[in-house]
């Protein structure tokens, strides 16, 4: 009489094929586990006659390290034995700190690996383990060697449309450098296009997230900040600037002794609406502008020509006491002077 011993009933250990543990002609004691008289089928078990190794799970503790033996390699990880028949899973994400690691590429069946138990589910008879937690965390080592604020040397190993990825010298850590952290002056995307794989540049460590395995760096932070020009300036102070560009929206100017350009809105060109025309100015001209708003923490400054006119008007009011004080002065307006001259000429005729 024939009976069936299912693959899962051969051993408590993970078996891929009966040939791994059984040979044709061998004799084994069997435990009958099912009997179907209608189908004339008899189900038996070999492992049912031995002690379930999962009953020994209580001697293993979550958080402790154990040496395990690799017994099966899968696309998603590796199965390993804590002891004969007691299997744990090491998922690919728990193999190490590098991304996209593969158990098939790292191990072979029979390898002994040190792992730390992560979880034990007795109902589902599952044990999860981690090799990564038994290794020195490279991000912690990086933080010890290069704390936040440290300037170090990096090599561009990759880039995308908005950032560079740099490998820091003497480490295996790849850091993130956003295009806005490359320069104070140039357009971020244009600046990003200047760099290629293999380029070397100095960067400052700005942020380290050990638990998330992330390091953010900045090349701009290693450069002198042209915005420091305004450290000695204040609101309502008048400075001289050179006109860089004119357009329908206003003016682009660069203060003297400063490398940064600033936009003056059309509404800030003059007090008189009729004079708020960028076409009145020529590129290269030097003009006086007032600092309307200055926030060093936000790196924000608003320059205005209108402010200079307003300050001049205010000074005149304080000096002469009234807005029409100019009427007491000779040649108060060209129109009035010309009218008197024409009238006098007619009377003489």
UniProtKB/TrEMBL annotation:
GO MF assignments: mRNA binding; structural constituent of ribosome
GO biological process: translation
Keywords, sorted A to Z: Ribonucleoprotein, Ribosomal protein
GO CC, one annotated term: cytosolic small ribosomal subunit
Protein origin, superkingdom: Bacteria
Domain S1 motif: 1-47, 63-132, 149-220, 236-306
Family: Belongs to the bacterial ribosomal protein bS1 family.
PANTHER family: 30S RIBOSOMAL PROTEIN S1 (PTHR10724), SMALL RIBOSOMAL SUBUNIT PROTEIN BS1C (PTHR10724:SF7)
This protein's name: Ribosomal protein s1
């Amino acid at each position: 009489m024939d009976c069936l011993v299912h693959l899962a009933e051969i051993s408590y250990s993970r078996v891929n094929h009966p040939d791994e543990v059984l040979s044709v002609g061998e004799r084994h004691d069997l435990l009958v586990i099912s009997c179907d008289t209608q189908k004339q089928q008899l189900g038996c078990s070999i492992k049912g006659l031995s002690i379930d190794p999962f009953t020994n799970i209580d001697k293993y503790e979550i958080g402790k390290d154990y040496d395990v033996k690799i017994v099966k390699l899968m696309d998603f990880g590796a199965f390993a034995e804590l002891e004969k028949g007691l299997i744990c899973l090491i998922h690919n994400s728990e193999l190490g700190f590098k991304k996209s690691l593969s158990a098939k590429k790292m191990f072979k069946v029979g390898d002994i690996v040190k792992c730390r138990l992560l979880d034990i589910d007795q109902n589902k008879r599952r044990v999860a383990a981690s090799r990564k937690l038994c290794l020195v965390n490279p991000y912690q080592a990086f933080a010890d060697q290069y704390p936040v604020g440290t300037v170090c040397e990096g090599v561009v190993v990759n880039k995308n449309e908005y950032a560079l990825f740099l490998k820091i010298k003497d480490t295996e850590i790849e850091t993130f450098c956003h295009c806005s952290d490359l320069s104070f002056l140039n357009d971020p995307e244009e600046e990003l296009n200047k760099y290629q794989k293999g380029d070397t540049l100095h960067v400052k460590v700005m942020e380290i997230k050990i638990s998330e395995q992330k390091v953010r760096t900045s090349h701009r932070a290693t450069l002198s900040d042209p915005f420091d020009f305004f450290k000695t300036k204040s609101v309502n102070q008048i400075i001289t600037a050179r006109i860089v560009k004119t357009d329908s929206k206003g003016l682009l100017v660069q203060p003297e002794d400063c490398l940064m350009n600033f936009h003056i809105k059309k509404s800030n060109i003059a007090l008189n609406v009729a004079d708020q025309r960028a076409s009145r100015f020529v590129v290269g001209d030097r003009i006086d502008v007032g600092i309307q708003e200055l926030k060093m923490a936000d790196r924000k400054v608003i320059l205005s020509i209108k402010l200079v006119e307003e300050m001049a008007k205010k000074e005149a009011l304080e000096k002469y006491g009234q807005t029409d004080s100019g009427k007491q002065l000779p040649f108060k307006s060209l129109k009035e002077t010309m009218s008197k001259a024409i009238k006098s000429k007619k009377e003489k005729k």
